[in-house]
Design goal:
The complex is a heterodimer of chains A (91) and B (412). Chain A is built from 2 helices and 5 strands. Chain A has a single domain, classed as Ubiquitin-like (UB roll), CATH 3.10.20. By secondary structure, chain A is α+β, with helices and mostly antiparallel strands. Chain B folds into 2 domains: 171 residues, Rossmann fold (3-Layer(aba) Sandwich), CATH 3.40.50.1100; 199 residues, Rossmann fold, CATH 3.40.50. Chain B has 16 helices and 13 strands. Chain B is globular and about 75 Å long. Chains A and B meet through strand 3 and strand 5 of A and helix 7 of B.
Chain lengths: 91, 412
Amino acid sequence: MSATVRIPTPLRTATGGAAKVDVEGDTLGEALSDLEAQHPGISERLLDESGELRRFVNVFVDDEDVRFQQGLETTLEPGTTVSIIPAVAGG
Amino acid sequence: MFVEGLRCRECGREAEIAAVHVCEFCFGPLEVVYDYEGMAKAVSRDRISKGPRSLWRYADMLPMLPGTTEADHVDLGAGYTPLVRAPRLGAKLGLRDLWVKNDTLNPSFSFKDRVVSVALTVARSLGFDTAACASTGNLANSVSAHAAAAGMDAYVFIPSDLEETKILASAVYGPKLVAVKGTYDDVNRLCGEIAGEFGWAFVNVNVRPYYAEGSKTIGYEVAEQLGWQLPEHLIAPMASGSMLVKIDKAFTELVTLGLVEETPWRISGAQATGCAPISTALNDGTGFVRPVKPDTVAKSLAIGNPADGYYAIDAVRRTGGAMGDVSDDEIIGGIRTLAETEGIFAETAGGVTVATLAKLVEQGRIDPSARTVAVISGIGLKTTDAVAPMLSPTHTINAGLSDFQEAVKLDD
């Protein structure tokens, strides 16, 4: 299954400037693994030592925060958009 | 001008001064780094007391970029609001020495004028000519007003279901006002993406490290107005949690700079039960801030995914404070109690603060003899919808003396 990951500005140093990356994977976790395969080094920016999403990283699948879904186990439909957004904003 | 740069609060990596709010490595929040030694030499109680009667009296302690002069300050007169004794509210709540920091008395009637005047001053120093924000209302009002006065364009994003007054109190200043069909968290997320695409100064996105520092001035003022003493206890409303964190930081800085004697203080935080991710995380012992979908009358505090929740928990735990949350009915009750005892008409966030303070006293979680300051962050005239159903004339009469005499017979 392929999905599109939208890369926020601070992470584009890890994607050679790309704002969108097409990835393969049935779940968010698999999609992020593929993202890492394409752009080595990006996953340590998103995941902590235990492999969970860092606390200031928000990931949205189909415009819904994955913490309201199944986290890294959230399934991706074909053509889904995954947005990665820094949490530190607002208020 | 004692700004040295930016540093990530999470991983410590440094960043150059720019319109950037997150650590490029770990997405942690960037915070302004100051040269406190230089600052300590420059500031004094005397110098501050001779400064303007606004937050700009603390300009040396704010993130002003090199070359900024007084003429560059985006200034509608925010800050230096009254700190008043609240003996009648104190008696009602069972607190012996209660004070209210009345931030309803700001140019656009909320504490947001503090953060916005700092943010737009820095934004102009960085070369921006367009200001923007994601807002639950008060910030929208403030950015619209300050941008107008500074001659900047403004793009202001709000949830479309805001209180009518908060919408028109932005629109009147002539910004591009974008009502988004969604919650504040949706608006915030959208703005995070827009900020990456457009070259604007989003005060609470890419300019947030500077913006947030403006809230420190609440803490500076409280101490100065108490005769250069720290209060023993302060309670603040929490949306993102940033204000509380920055007041705590202000107290620490005042000690570091030798402006006050180091005396212990406690900081407490107040939320609405319909949006209480921070107080829940503290009180359930997990410390894990789980996002929520807000459902509360206190729309100005309706941030389900609070950026500074973890740091607010750290500050409250470190200082021995408490957190609590209150229902919509308690919030309305808090608004009315504050108005009826102290003559201050607060918006729903003020009701949250007062009602939470009452609850924490009842629960025995705070010391009733401690000198306590309650931060009242915005004015009630913007959230009249919340209280309108229970407020009406107490007497409606014909215009004759006997009609009045008849009507007041029933009083007492």
